[in-house]
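Last lecture ended with a question: if I hand you only a sequence, what can you say about the shape of the protein? Today we answer it with a concrete record. The protein is ABC transporter permease. Below, first the input exactly as provided, then the predicted structure, then a couple of comments.
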Amino acid sequence: MPDRTTLRRLSALSRAELTLLVRNRSALFGALLMPLLMVGFLLTLGDTLGLGDGNLSVAAVIGTSAIGMVLLMAVYSTLIPAYVGRREERVLKRLRTGEATDAEILTGTAVPAVLLALIQCAVLIGAGSAHPSLSAPARPDLLIIGVVLGMLMMVLMAIVTSAFTRTVESAQITALPLFLIAMMTSGMITQLDTLPDTVADIFRIMPFTPVMDLVRAGWLDAGGGDVTRALLLALAWTALAGYAVRRWFRWDPRQ
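The predicted structure:
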C-alpha cells in the first residue's frame, strides 16, 4: 500500500500532467473524441464490414469494441507523445533528481489519461447496457479485470513505444503498428469465429486479443474455458511489456 508521501508525489505529478493534457487540444481531442468517432464509423459500416457474421450481434461487437477503442486511443496513443515530450524537454531527467522514484514519475504521467479512459469506459458500458440488443454485464469481475489489465498493458506499451519515438510528431507513426495489429486481430472489426481456424488461433495469442476476450466474457458471458487462457495471456503480455520498459525505456533526450 503506497504511503502518504508517495500518494502526495503522485498527486502532484498527476495534477501537472492533467494541466498539460487539458491545454493540449490535439491530445485532448484524441483522448476524448477519437474513440467516439471510431465507434460511429463502426456503426455506419457495421453491415458492410460483416460485424454480425459470427456468434455475436453487431451491437455486441460494437459495444465491446468501443472499450477497445478507448484503451488504444485514450491511453496508448495519448501517452506516447506525453512520454516523448517530457523526455525531450528533459522533464523526466529533472524529476529523477528529486525524491520521486522512477515508477512514480512514469505512473504520474499516465494517471490523467487512465482516469479519462475509466470514465469513458463506464459511460460506454452504461449506455451499452441500455441498448435493446445488450444487457448489463454478466460477469462484472471479468469485465473489470479485462479493462484494468488492458489499461496497464497499454500504459506499459506506450512507455516502450516512446523509447523508439524520436519526436512528438512521429508518435502518430510509431503508434500505428500496435494499433493496427490490435484492431485487426482482436475481434474488434472481424469476429474471430468467422476466420479459418489457423488464422484465428494466431490472432488469439496477439497482445490485445486476450484483453478483448476478457471484456467480451465479462460483458456478454462469452468465453467459457477460454477465459483462463485469455487471463494468462494478458498477464504474460503485460509482464513482457513491463520487462521491455526496464530494458529499453530512455530517460535522456534522443535529439
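Comments.
1. The chain is about 75% helix and 0% strand.
2. The radius of gyration is 18 Å.
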